C-alpha cells in the first residue's frame, strides 16, 4: 500500500445493498485503521484541526490510534465532540477536516472521518465511556430540541454540573439524526440511540412529546418550572415547496415526509403501522444530502429513481461520498434541469414533471454559477411519485410564542456567534439560527451556547 | 406512558377515553388536537381534544374505528396506556381571541356530522360558559350513532338531531336541517362545521347561499403534526397551508375541498392500488 492513496473502506456490494437498509460502509478494522493512521505526517501546524468546526485534535487522536492506545484516542475526541460515531459517518469531510489536510494537496487526504468513526465504534463496542458525572451546581437549564445542537449543549452543561432537561416535540430524541438521515447511512439503534444514551448517562433528562410553544411556553419554563436559562436548538424542519402548478397532486411529497415515514416511523419495515407510498418511478427534485437520502431510500423500496437538479454535479451540496454511492446504486441524474409544473391525471395523481433545461450563467452571491433557463427547452419526465427536497426553513412556533425573541426573515432566531439572543436568558444555535447546515456546525453552536450559558449563570 | 383513566363506549364503533396527560390538560384550548401512538410500531394518529380537566390532569378523546390504527386505539382498556400523547397541537379556535362582550352579541350555529359531535363539544362548552347563544345540529346515520347528546344538551341552547334513516329526530341530512332553519328565517352570525369532508363541503355550499360565515376543521392526513412534513397541506385561498400548524380550522369559503378529499385518500383508494405498485401500506387492513 503506497502512502499516497487512502486505505479503501469496505462497503456493502452496490447491487446487494439496493434491497436492504443495512449500513453501506463497514468502516475500518484495526489493521486498516493502523495503516491509514500511519499515513498522517503529524503536522506541527495541523490544517485539518482548523478545518474541523469543533477543532478535534486530529493528529493527537490519530497518533493514539497508531500507538494502539484506543482509550486515549477516544478521550481525545471526547474533549471536543459528543457524537463522534455520528460525525465520523455524516460530516462533509471533503469540505472540512479532510479538505484542509496537507496530504490532500498532492495525494489523497487522510481518511479522518473513517478513523474517527473507527475510534467511536471501538469505544461503543468495548463499553469504554468517558462519561463522569459532575458535582451539581444548582442551576436548572432547559434545552429545546434533541438534535445535534441540543445534545451537544446539554452535554457540556451537564458536565459543568447543571441540571438539564431536553424537551423534544417528537416521540424519539435525535432530531434529523432519527427522522432524516436513513439507517443505511447512520444506524439508529446501534449508533444514534447509543450516543444519546451516553448523554443521558451524564444525568441529562429527555422529555419527549413536548412541543414548546404549544405544550408549554418559554415563559412558563422560566416562571413556573424554575429554569434559569434556556437553549433553543429546534432546527430548521419546515419543508419548502416549489410553488409551481400541480404541487398538491397525490404522490407529491416533501423529502421530510418521505424520510420521516421511512426513518422515524420505520415504514420501510413491514411490521410498521405507518404506510409509505413509493410507486414505480420516483423523481427527486434537489441536489443536497436530503435529496440523495430520499432517492436512495426510494430505490431500496423498489422504485426506479431520477434526481432532477438545476445546476451541475459540481455545484451539488451533497456529500461527495453520497453522490458516489447513489450513482453506484443506480440512481439516474438529470443535471441542469428544473421543474416548472407537476403533471397529473384526472384522478389527481402525479404522472410526471414538466421540466426546462438550464445553463450556467454568472456566479451568484454564493459564488456558484447561477442557472438560467434555456427558452423553449421544456420536456417531461414521467414519474408516479415526486419528492421535493429543496431545503427547509425554521418552524416559527417558538419565536412567535416567546415575547422579546427576534426572528430573521427566514423565521430563524437571531443569535450572535456566542448563541446569545435578543432575550436575556434565552440562547439559540444550530439550524434554527443558521438555516439548514450540518451536524457538526450545529454541535459546535450548541457547545458555544453552553459556554455562554455557563457565563450567564456565573458558574 | 399515558394512562387511560376511563373508557366508555358511545356507539358500536365509537369510544371515549380520559387519558392522563397533565401537560396537555393544562394548556389545551378549544379547536386543538393531540397525536397518539399505540405501541412501538404505532402510527401517529391525530384526534381532537374533546374535553380537558387541568386539575385531574386528564384529556378526553373520542375515537371512531375506521381503519387499522383507530382499531388499535379502540382495543385499549382502562388502565392500559398510550406510548405517546402529544399536544395540544394546532391553533385554538379564532373565537377565543374575541372579547366576551362582542362574543355575547353573536349567535352561533354548529353543524356536527357523525363523529364531529365530539370535536364540536369543547367549542360549544366554551361559548356557553361565556354566555353565548349556541345552537347545534347533530347528524348521524341512525339513532345508535348519535353520540354525546346529553353532554351537548347541557351546553347548547338548542339542539337539532337528524338521522339519515329517520330513526331519531329529523329524517335527513344535516344540510337539509340547516337549510330548513335558514329558510325559516333563523339568523346566525357565525357557523362552524365539523365532520366528514364531504359533509363540510356541502355545508359550505349552503352557508354561501345565505352569506353565513363558516369555519371548518380540516381532518387531513398527518404525520408529525408539528409543521415538519407537509402531509397535511391544504389549499386555502389559493395558498398552500399546513393544517397541523396553520389550522386545523379555516375559513370554509377559501378551502379547496375537492383537492382535500382527494389528498385524504392518498394511502387508501383502491383504484390507485391497481395502477400503482405499493410496497407497504395499502393492504394494512
Ligand atoms: C435528510 C437529511 C440529511 C442530512 N445529511 C447530513 C449529512 O450527511 N451531514 C451533515 O453534516 N448534515 C446533514 N444534514 C443536516 C443536519 O442533519 C442538520 O444540520 C442538523 O441536524 C441540525 O441540528 P439541529 O440540532 O440544529 O436541529 P435538528 O436536528 O433539526 O433537531 C431539532 C429538534 O428540535 C425539535 N423541535 C423543533 N421544534 C420544537 C419545539 N417547538 N419544541 C420541542 N422540540 C422541537 C425537532 O423535533 C428536532 O428533533 C442532513 C439533514 C437532513 C434533513
Ligand atoms: C386534526 C384532526 C382531528 C381529528 N379528530 C378525530 C377525532 O376526534 N376522532 C376520530 O375518531 N378521528 C379524528 N380524526 C381522524 C383520525 O385521525 C383518522 O380517522 C385516523 O387517522 C384513521 O386512521 P386508521 O389507521 O384507523 O385508518 P386508515 O386505515 O388510515 O383509514 C381508514 C379510512 O379513514 C380515512 N382517513 C384516514 N385518515 C383520515 C383522517 N385524518 N380523517 C378522516 N378520514 C381519514 C381513510 O381515507 C380511509 O377511508 C382527526 C383527524 C385530524 C387531522
Ligand atoms: S467532527 Fe467532522 S469535521 Fe471534525 S474531524 Fe470529525 S469528521 Fe472531521
Ligand atoms: S493535516 Fe492531514 S497529515 Fe497533517 S496532521 Fe492533519 S490529518 Fe495528519
Ligand atoms: S402533519 Fe406534518 S406538517 Fe402537518
Helix fraction of chain A, binned, reads 25-40%
The set of bound ligands, ions and cofactors reads: flavin-adenine dinucleotide, iron/sulfur cluster, FE2/S2 (inorganic) cluster
Shape of chain A: globular
Q: How much strand content do the residues of chain B show?
A: 25-35%
What is the count of DSSP helices of chain B, taking H or I runs of 4+ residues?
9
Q: State the major sheet of chain B.
A: 7 strands, mixed
Distance between the termini of chain B: 26 Å
Q: Can you give the mean pLDDT of chain A?
A: 93
Number of separate structural domains of chain B: 2
Integer average pLDDT of chain B? 90
Structure description:
- The complex is a heterodimer of chains A (459) and B (285).
- With 459 residues, chain A is of the alpha/beta class.
- Chain A folds into 3 domains: 14-125, Alpha-helical ferredoxin (Fumarate Reductase Iron-sulfur Protein, Chain B, domain 2, Orthogonal Bundle); 140-237 and 393-457, FAD/NAD(P)-binding domain; 241-390, FAD/NAD(P)-binding domain, CATH 3.50.50.60.
- Helix content of chain A is 34%, strand content 16%.
- Chain A has 19 helices and 16 strands.
- Chain A has helices spanning 14-17, 30-37, 47-51, 58-66, 70-78, 84-90, 97-100, 103-106, 112-125, 148-159, 176-179, 188-201, 218-223, 255-262, 289-300, 320-329, 397-400, 431-434, 439-457, and strands at residues 140-144, 163-167, 205-207, 229-232, 238-239, 252-254, 281-285, 304-308, 332-334, 337-344, 350-363, 369-373, 379-382, 385-388, 392-393, 426-428.
- In chain A, strand 1 (140-144), helix 10 (148-159) and strand 2 (163-167) form a beta-alpha-beta unit.
- The longest helix of chain A is centred in the C-terminal third of the chain and has 19 residues, at 439-457.
- The model of chain A has no long low-confidence stretch (mean pLDDT 93).
- Chain B has 285 residues and is of the alpha/beta class.
- Chain B folds into 2 domains: 2-89, Translation factors (Elongation Factor Tu (Ef-tu), domain 3, Beta Barrel); 94-217, Nucleotide-binding domain of ferredoxin-NADP reductase (FNR) module (Rossmann fold), CATH 3.40.50.
- Chain B has helices spanning 22-27, 68-75, 100-104, 117-129, 149-155, 174-183, 197-209, 257-264, 270-275, and strands spanning 2-11, 14-20, 33-37, 45-48, 51-53, 58-64, 81-82, 84-89, 107-113, 133-140, 158-163, 170-171, 190-194, 214-217, 233-236, 239-242, 249-251.
- In chain B, the strands form 4 sheets. Chain B has a 7-stranded mixed sheet with strand order 12-11-10-9-13-14-17, sandwiched between helices. A 5-stranded antiparallel sheet of chain B has the order 5-6-2-1-7.
- The longest helix of chain B has 13 residues, at 117-129.
- Mean pLDDT of chain B is 90; it is low at 270-285.
- Chains A and B meet through strand 5 and helix 14 of A and helix 1, helix 2, strand 8 and helix 8 of B.
- The structure holds flavin-adenine dinucleotide (2 copies), iron/sulfur cluster (2 copies) and FE2/S2 (inorganic) cluster.
